[in-house]
Amino acid sequence: MGSRWVMTELSIGSRCDVMVSDLSQDGAGIGRCGEAVVFVPGALPQERVLARLVHRGRRHWLSQLDQVLVASPERRRPPCSLASSCGGCSLQHLAPAAQARWKGDHVAQALQRIAAIHHPVAPLMAAPIDLGYRNRAIIPLERRSDGQVRGGYYRRGSHRIVNLNQCPVLDPRIDALVEPIKADLAATDWPIDRDGHNGGGLRHLALRLGRRSGEMQITLISSHDRLPGLGTLARQWTNRWDGVVGVSLNLQPEATNVLMGPQTRLISGRATVRERFADLEFTIASDTFFQVFTEQAERVVPLLLDVLASADRPGLAIDAYCGIGTYSLPLAAAGWQVLGLEINPRSVDLAQRNAKANGLEQRCAFAACDVAGALAEHLPSADLLFIDPPRRGLDQEVVATILSATPRRLVYLSCNPASLARDLKPLVSSGRMELLLVQPIDFFPHTTHVETLVVLRRRP
Ligand SMILES: C[S@@+](CC[C@H](N)C(=O)[O-])C[C@H]1O[C@@H](n2cnc3c(N)ncnc32)[C@H](O)[C@@H]1O
């Protein structure tokens, strides 16, 4: 059969025999059927699979896995029964050691492909536990025509909810709340629609846990506050579950993919949970950022302090995108004077409160600002710049500031290898900075996400 014939014969619905050779950034198997490139979610490298074509893209076909004909030795039974449909985790069917190898390779390839950086990548710091680790869940909700409430993550590649009552990557303490809360919501007559259509209403359920304190926050995200009986239900929840310290309502009237709106109202109990992190006490609110895997995020601290101790005497550190001071406080405790920059004013308030609670307020100052606007003023006097931006990475203005006032030491913590590589490219290719360490850390087992800690120093 000539390859030309295969190309012209392929159409939506065709069944293909695919040899899988690689994994995409989203964890789909990539293989060939004749000359056509086919993405097969759920298939693994070294596998031969039967797949049904469902969509033709510009450069490849997207397909659905029908049957694994020859399985990879690294395939294993996923711990979650919904793994093949739920879009929350895409690597559950891959053995943990192979997940670790793939994540390390993924970081190395992004650096090479996007930034032409060929620096060695340290072996991934795998997580000691890979289930029950998440301290946070934000679950889209919808009410069916029979009144039942469905809630869960989106089906892979779609906007349809996979209804779930148990999610094995969630800490069991918040996992146990999902089903009874959905049942209580079903018994109300509130409109429930994650997209805020049909007059709006309840959209998402957000749960947050302090892993060390056991304290939990329930937050309902709604497009409006017309939820009769909410106060009574909230008090029932705080009374029913020991760990639940508060229930809040977050208002998100905008039809946008930003899940939480700017206004959060406390309905019952208190609005925060406590967490112990790097031997320090933190207070976290439901609408402020905190790393989802407490223990893995904590492993950054000794790594960071070891790197700094080997070369730097504590001076002024800027913690840009500092959140509630997660890394500012450990730096301050190690003797650094820290200036934290953060755009969310509620995070800044908590960062100040956290510094005070740990007796570190003399060593920390926090400013509510956009890093892009504020960095140029402060960077010339800093010895260390620690940056931990959102997934989209740094604004060009921030990169330009770093190039014009290059700090002695730059530590970049990133949850997105592609934006990390894009941001590092000008810093390294300018010759102004030298890479010392690229350390991937698994903050998100079973997903395709990986955190990377990168250390650079200014060239003399
Ligand atoms: C990945 S989180 C890191 C937070 C903190 N370092 C931690 O580990 O908990 C990114 C933080 O950047 C903040 N942020 C986003 N855009 C920002 C901007 N333009 N300027 C300042 N902070 C920003 C977010 O509110 C969030 O707290």
Question: What attributes does this structure have?
Answer:
six-stranded mixed beta sheet, disordered N terminus, 460 residues, Rossmann fold, binds S-adenosylmethionine
Short summary of the structure?
By secondary structure, the chain is α/β, with parallel strands linked by helices. Helices cover 25% and strands 30% of the residues. α2 crosses α11 and α9 (371-378) runs parallel beside α10 (396-404).
Question: What do you see in this structure?
Answer:
The protein is of the alpha/beta class and 460 residues long. Helix 2 (96-115) crosses helix 11 (417-429). The strands form four sheets. The chain has a seven-stranded mixed β-sheet, with helices on both faces. It has a six-stranded mixed β-sheet with strand order 7-6-8-9-10-11. Strands 1-2-3-5-4 form a five-stranded mixed β-barrel. The protein has helices at 3-9, 96-115, 172-186, 230-240, 294-298, 300-309, 328-333, 345-357, 371-378, 396-404, 417-429, and strands spanning 15-23, 28-33, 36-41, 48-56, 61-70, 136-143, 149-151, 202-209, 216-222, 244-251, 263-269, 272-277, 280-285, 316-320, 337-342, 364-368, 384-387, 409-414, 433-441, 451-458. 25% of the residues lie in helices and 30% in strands. The termini are far apart. The protein is globular, with a radius of gyration of 24 Å. A hairpin with a 6-residue loop joins strand 8 and strand 9 (216-222). The protein has three domains: 7-70, OB fold (Dihydrolipoamide Acetyltransferase, E2P) (Beta Barrel), CATH 2.40.50.140; 100-128 and 291-458, Rossmann fold, CATH 3.40.50.150; 136-277, Beta Barrel (OB fold (Dihydrolipoamide Acetyltransferase, E2P)). Residues 289-291, 321-323, 326-327, 341-344, 347, 370-372, 388-390 line the site of S-adenosylmethionine (SAM).
